[in-house]
Structure formats: structure tokens, C-alpha cells
Specification:
Rossmann fold; alpha/beta; seven-stranded parallel beta sheet
Amino acid sequence: MQRIVVLNPKGGSGKTTIATNLASYLAAQGHAPVLMDFDPQGSSLRWVKKRKPTQPLIQVIAAFEKDTRTTRAFQLRVPQMTTHIIIDTPAALEARQLPEMTRDADKVLVPVLPSDIDIHTCSRCIRDLLLVGKIRREDDRIGVIANRVRRNTLTYQSLIRFLHTLGIPIVATIRDSQNYVRAAELGVGVHEMKSYVAHDDIEQWLPLVAWLAGPRSQQAPPGGAQPGSAEPAPEGTAAADGNGLQPRVCGEMPDAELPPPAAVAIG
């Protein structure tokens, strides 16, 4: 079972977008992902509730809710057949909370937007993950996602220059696309949309999936070639490993209106 934490203390960085689309990708491949929503806004929880019964199953746990009638460990338990746990963390996460939030995490994804404020916050977040969270660079557990970018802009170039200085791999560059807005509204991921609609978005997930599939010890050059590159790798170049991750396009979903939301199992 692989544990993936999506983390950035700054709100609006795209944590939920990354978490839900990753869960969608895995579910469409036939795996059994669980979304663990620690964000009090409950965005991941609402997204799962929008999915219809015919879509691949994604379990969700409302980790932000407190239940005094049971233990925390019991509340956060996952189904026995779970293959991946994807943790959507809250904004304003304090440095002292990082060790607990990243404990036993196989990979930590840090999405960052191309703005001065976001770059500063990302720098502090990476520092805290290394110093407070005690995650070593050489373990290759931290990956940065350049999110909602528009290439050939000064802010994008500034972001990439900054990310190269961190010594942390840029594992994906996600463009600013309305497909993510529409997917959030419909309870789907871009991998479940018709390929002619979301082809460019799907392609940008290939290096991220390849990096997640690699072992912890696999070294990826900061902002360099795959599996940690910001540019998409050719389809099918990475073989699936024990995590069941493979950079390929999943089966398409009809691009039609969805029926009323279906009930969802909450841990």
C-alpha cells in the first residue's frame, strides 16, 4: 500500500485538484485508492460524493471530522483491500504538524503556483519538510508540482528557476486548464474525460506517475529528465511496479451530464 501526501501550507495551491485527479487515475486503472480529506473545507469529500455508481470506486475518509465516540486510529482506518492512500492536507499547516502528517509517507507532493507569494511559501515548506519533517533529499520522497502554469511567461520562468535551486525534483508541470474546473464540478478526473478533450492535460501527468512508481531510493535530478522531469515522457516508457502506477491513458468516460450524486462510503 502506497501512502501519498499532497501538502502545501498555502491555501489555493491546488492540493485537492492533485489529490482527486490522482485518485481518479488510480481507480480508473482498477486499483483501490482511498482519499483521506484532512481539509475542513471538505472539497475532496464533496468531489467523491458527486461520482456516480458506474464510475470506478474511490473510498473517502472525512479525516477533518472529530468523533469523540471512537479513537482517532479507528476513525482513520482504511479498507483491507486499499492499494493507495492519498492525503489531502489542510491549509495553514504548521511546521510542528509535519512529522505526524508525513509519517510513513512514501511520497510527498508539493504543488506550487507561479507567484512570488507562492514561491516564498514553497521555499519555507520544503525547508520545514527537510528540517522538521526529517525527510532526506536522497530518499527522493519529495516532489514539486508546478501548478496552473502558463508557459513562456515571466512568472513561469521565475518559478522554474526557483525550483531548480531547491535540489528537489520537479515531477510535473500542470497547465492552467479549464478541464480541471469542469472535472471538479462533475466528480471526475481528467483521465476519465474524453481523450480529445483532455489529451494535453493527461500527457502532463506521465512524468508524475512515473516518479510515483519509482522506489524511494531512485534519484531524479532536480528539474531534470524523467521520472522527475517537468516535461512529459513518451507514453509507455515506464513499467508499472508494485505500486500499480503506470504512465498511460485510462479508459474514457462519456462526456455527458452525470446523474444525481451517489452515496459514498466514509471510513
